[in-house]
Amino acid sequence: MRCILVTFDCLPVTALACYGNPWARTPSFDRLACDGTLFENCFSSQVPAAVLDNAPSPAALTEAGICSLNAAGVLAELRARGVTTCVVSDHPLPADLLRQCDTAETVDGMNTWDVPISETGAGRLFATAAQVLERLHDHPSFLLWVRSVGVANANPSSQAAVLLQEHLNAYRQRTLEVLQAERRRKRRDGEPEPVFEGPDADDQPTFVDRPSLFLRLGTRATHAFHSWAQQRAEGLLSPSTAVDGGEGARAGATIDASAPTPLLEHWLFDAAVTQLDLAFGPFWSRCRNVLDDRTLAFVAGLFGRERGERAWVNHLRALRGAPAQPFSAVHEELVHVPLWAFGKPFPAAKRSPVLIQTDDISATLTAFSRGCAESLHVSPLVSSMPHRRLVIRGADGSRAVRTPEHALIVPPHTSPPEASAAMSDSVCRTDGGPDRIGRPSDEVTAVEAAPSPHWQLFLKPEDRWEVNDVSATHGDMCKELYHWLSGKS
Q1: Of residues 250, 270, 252, 195, the one with CA closest to residue 15
Q2: What is the DSSP string of 360-415?
Q3: How do the domains of the chain map onto residue ranges?
Q4: Each residue of 14-48: pLDDT tens digit?
Q5: How far is the CA of 420 from the CAs of 261, 371, 472, 476, in angstroms?
Q6: CATH code of the region 2-156+263-383
Q7: Could you tell me the sign of the dihedral formed by the alpha carbons of 179, 184, 186, 187, in that order?
Q8: Which DSSP state fits 105?
């Protein structure tokens, strides 16, 4: 058995390329998406309600004795089978886990911004992991587990805010130059000129009449302003009067002087994601030199994005007295995490729709240690039925039920709907049998009561969950899933 396991306490699910994340540069994670199988319906490890409610620091997780993936038990079984177990972590390891490690190394994981990538917390972690991997290169049986806090450990210092503000000013100036060049070109070609608003319209155009113009500069080079143009709905750009853009009226927008402040918070988080990706890249290149048919590799997030971007944004907003973003313990970003696998049973560039949790990695490692790779067909990662339903309970009393096509989120203290007919057991299955979700059903349509206005129902699109709340138009589905969820409570 030869296995490399990299886990991040906090890693955005959109960090992997196939989900599409144009705001943050992630070349190493992009490469992962092409090298192995991505499980697109993976849910975070089950942790106590208090952890979800308070969203503590990684140190608090360690103090609480939380050891995801049943780590100590798995390491003990692997060692009993002659597997050399090595753990490299950027935060302290629990005592029960240390007892099961042949080698354990801890590095200072706090990230900084004004140093080279190799000197950041993530850079030091993966450099140490690469050294351990070199020592294990010719070893016939080993598990190398690299535990990273991920982006949750980066330090959003005031200096970083200043640097990002300077970049913002540079992007702003570059955009104005491009808009002026566009106007001059239209004058030269005799085309109608865009209308710019403001007292100094001739010198400093402040109206972006074509947001797609930013794309001409290249998404990677101008991701900040591309985001800026697309964030008008969040108040980052103030609405203006409609103008004639040549193909009918379109809504205009003037650049708000206060716009950089809230957007800067998200840029800080995206910068931390990129920093983590660049630190991970050299380590993954070395991993590829040892990966073969006898080797497995996993890269997984454990606790979801809520403790990442939202925690960051709320922290920075609190520093300037702004209200925090709403928190929901069963929000998609909290429970839906990345899980990527490489090895003989996991084809390259594949996306798997099965419903799994990160805890399933434990069973896969155990199965792998007991025999050849072909035995992995019994592991949850491979044998999970795509029709399985998953129940999630939040710290605040909220609940959610997830199917491959739908997700219903029920807030706490929600009264059950009045029903004129009972739900049939044949509608709700959990045994991997035929799933009637989303299909016409006499038992479902017999329920007359309207769904609660506080419920949220989301459909599974091509790439991501929770794009639009469709509870208002899919009342029957809300009631079916609610009654099924009530029977499981």
Answers
A1: 270
A2: HHHHHHHHHHTS-GGGGGGSHHHH--TT--EEEE-TTS-EEEE-SSEEEEE-TTPP
A3: 2-156+263-383, 158-262, 390-488
A4: 787 666 565 677 889 988 888 899 988 887 765 43
A5: 52, 54, 20, 13
A6: 3.40.720.10
A7: positive
A8: E
The answer to whether 52 and 395 are in contact (CB under 8 A) is yes
Between 254 and 305, the higher pLDDT residue = 305
Sheet with 399-402, side-by-side order of all strands: 390-393, 399-402, 406-410, 456-459
Asked if the model's pLDDT at residue 307 lies above 50, the reply is no
The total number of residues shown for the chain amounts to 489
Q: What radius of gyration, in Å, describes the C-alpha atoms of the chain?
A: 25
Q: Are 428 and 417 in contact (CB under 8 A)?
A: no
Q: Output DSSP code: residue 299.
A: E
Say how many CA atoms lie within 13 Å of 364 toward its Cβ.
29
Three-state secondary structure readout of 133-146 = HHHCCCCCCEEEEE
H or E stretch at 106: strand 103-106
Nearest by Cα to 314 from 266, 260, 259, 273: 266
More confident residue, 158 or 2: 2
Q: Is the dihedral of CA 436, 439, 441, 447 positive or negative?
A: positive
pTM of the complete model beyond 0.90: no
